[in-house]
Amino acid sequence: MSDLKSLLEERRTMVDTKATTYREARDGHNEKARTARTARDELSGEVRELITEVKQQREVREQLNEIVRNKKEVRKEATDRVRSARSKIEESRGPQPQPEEQPFGRRGRRERPVTLHSLRRDLDRLEREFEQGRHTGKNEKKVMERMKSIQKQIRDMKAAEASDTELGAVSADLKQAQEEQEAAHQEVEEAAAAAQSAHDLMLKWHAQVDDTRAKQERAHRELRSIKREADSAHHHYIVSLRCLHSIQDMLRAMRSADSGESHRPTPRMEVSDLMGKLMSGETLSTDELMQLQRYD
Question: Which pTM value belongs to this model?
Answer without folding.
Answer: 0.51
